Amino acid sequence: MSELLGVAVLGAGHMGADHIRRIDRVVNGARVAAVADPDTGRAEDAVAGIDGVSVHTEVSAALDAPGVRAVLVASPGPAHEEALLAAFERGLPVLCEKPMVPESAGALRVVEAEARLGRRLAQVGFMRRYDPEYVRLKALLDSGRLGRPLMLHCTHRNVSSPPGFTSAMVVNSSVSHEIDAARWLLGQELTAVTVLRPRPSTHAPADLLDPQFVLFETAEGALVDVEVFVNTGFGYQVRCEAVCESGSARIGDEDAMRVTTAGGAHQEVAQDYLVRFADAYDREVQAWVDATREGRVTGPGVWDGYAASAVAEAGVRALESGGRVAVELAARPALYA
Ligand SMILES: NC(=O)C1=CN([C@@H]2O[C@H](COP(=O)(O)OP(=O)(O)OC[C@H]3O[C@@H](n4cnc5c(N)ncnc54)[C@H](O)[C@@H]3O)[C@@H](O)[C@H]2O)C=CC1
Ligand SMILES: O=C1[C@@H](O)[C@H](O)[C@@H](O)[C@H](O)[C@H]1O
């Protein structure tokens, strides 16, 4: 197929605008064909200077716009289920930002809808699977050189949380990345969650439990801990250390320029995900475009999105109850065997 893949982008906020720029200027083989956002001004700003894009307030109008062959969903999580089902009805391949659907019941409806189609159509935006450091860690663990993984120690820090960010979103939006990364790195399901709540930072909004300390148990007896702190005020830091029977490996230490002058040294710290994971997003979207043009889905899929939502939902219940909550997963349809 030599024709560029026409993409409808749903949601032109922080991520949507960045993906529009990426499809227009970074990625090969695709173009932005349509954008939908109820905030028309945002959509128009995001496509300024790009030719041949139609702007819509309704998702259905963007999906039905001329030239649309695929969809990138970057609207808020609660809008994802409707967008995915609308894309499936039209047979359109999708890259859907995480969380695929925040509630596990809605995520399962998406699994069932794709399973009814009998072919995979959607990829979920767990971009850490494309980050070069995570890719190296995965290859090292898979090689067996370090022996069986016993623990993952993870850190996930943001400078500040966006308006409206809730204590549940700390788990089902922020920690959804660690949930997917742990499932992928270890090749195991997460089976139970406990969430501890240190005293909240005085810099966090009054009603936000931040930081949180999340502990996952896995099907084969490993442990995964996550310090998540989304109002540090100082930087975006994502780290992961795998402790295995014959060694350990750690990623995410700042590799930015270090400047030494008389009397001291200074190391830059990324301020947000768009900087820290810029390369990962580029690789993710390029891989999605390449696979879509070949009629394939190669990245994390709808089952991964559902599993992450089910684990996160157990995490939210653990946060609320203060106890250990077992993860309940539905039976996996044959499509995802
Ligand atoms: N992979 C990653 O690292 C990141 C992923 N995200 C995810 O990206 C998605 C969007 O997040 P942000 O861009 O930060 O939010 P945002 O609030 O900046 O932008 C969302 C946009 O969607 C629009 N919108 C609302 N309802 C809509 C609908 N039904 N259809 C189309 N557009 C609609 C809003 O008007 C707004 O312009 C979320 O799922 C979020 O979890 C966000 C940040 C980083
Ligand atoms: O996905 C993301 C945001 O939605 C979330 O709010 C942040 O905590 C994460 O660091 C970022 O990667």
Automatic annotation (TrEMBL):
Assigned EC number: 1.1.1.18
Domain Gfo/Idh/MocA-like oxidoreductase N-terminal: 6-124
Occurrences of domain Gfo/Idh/MocA-like oxidoreductase C-terminal (ranges): 138-327
Enzyme type, top EC level: oxidoreductase
Record flagged with keyword Membrane: no
InterPro entries in the record: Gfo-Idh-MocA_inositol_DH (IPR050424), Gfo/Idh/MocA-like_OxRdtase_C (IPR004104), Gfo/Idh/MocA-like_OxRdtase_N (IPR000683), MI/DCI_dehydrogenase (IPR023794), NAD(P)-bd_dom_sf (IPR036291)
Gene3D superfamilies listed in its UniProt record: Dihydrodipicolinate Reductase, domain 2, NAD(P)-binding Rossmann-like Domain
Reactions that this protein is recorded to catalyse: myo-inositol + NAD(+) = scyllo-inosose + NADH + H(+)
GO BP field: inositol catabolic process
Keyword annotations of the record: NAD, Oxidoreductase
GO molecular function: inositol 2-dehydrogenase (NAD+) activity; nucleotide binding
Function, as annotated: Involved in the oxidation of myo-inositol (MI) to 2-keto-myo-inositol (2KMI or 2-inosose).
Subunit structure: Homotetramer.
Family per similarity comment: Belongs to the Gfo/Idh/MocA family.
Protein name: Inositol 2-dehydrogenase
Gene name linked to the record: iolG
